[in-house]
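Lab channel / #folding
Pinned by the channel admin:
"Please post every new chain as: sequence first, then the structure tokens as a reply. Keep commentary short and put observations after the output so the thread stays searchable."

First post following the new format, from NK:
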Amino acid sequence: MKYNLPKKHFSYSQLSLWLKNKQQYRERYYLDAPAFESKETIFGKRVARMLETGQKDPVLDLVPRYPVMEHRLEVKIAGVPFLGFLDSFSKRKKAILEYKTGKNAWNDVLVHKHDQLTIYSLLVKTIYGKVDPLVKLIWIETRYKSETQKLGNREMEGESNELEFTGKIEIFERKIAEWERKNIKKLIIRTAEEISKDYTNWQKKL
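Reply from TO:
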């Protein structure tokens, strides 16, 4: 099948948004609306750059890393042009590390449900012919800095608008089986077909 997708490459973020909210997907990728950014996402991008460049930080220095940071993966999945970036990758072991920041705690259930890990495992297996089945997700906990505010003669503790690390780091391990990669491949193809048909119909209405 020849796909008619709004962007040159398909990605996890596109797949996730389409499944979550089709109208938001159309606005973002058909109409090129700017991507929503919060203080948390902006901070997460800054942390990613710090990890990639090896910037020294007392918390990030404790975070596990593989030799290759921000490893670009570009491959066709049953004809679907797919693009992904691994936070950290071992070419020798074909092993994947994924970093997450935020104040909302991760747990084993959330990690098991996180399709991004399965997709990245599929991309590595497709490109290299093999992949370490054990994928690790590292959660770097953050919080808003506290600040003291004066109300008349009283001082009150509250949260500022600036994020910081709490110092807590948790490592979750998930073993991804071959059947999971097969299922996520089917989901990628099915979703790409849906978007292709929807985008074609949208173009016809212009």
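NK: The first helix runs from residue 12 to 20.
TO: also worth noting, The two ends are 24 Å apart (CA to CA).
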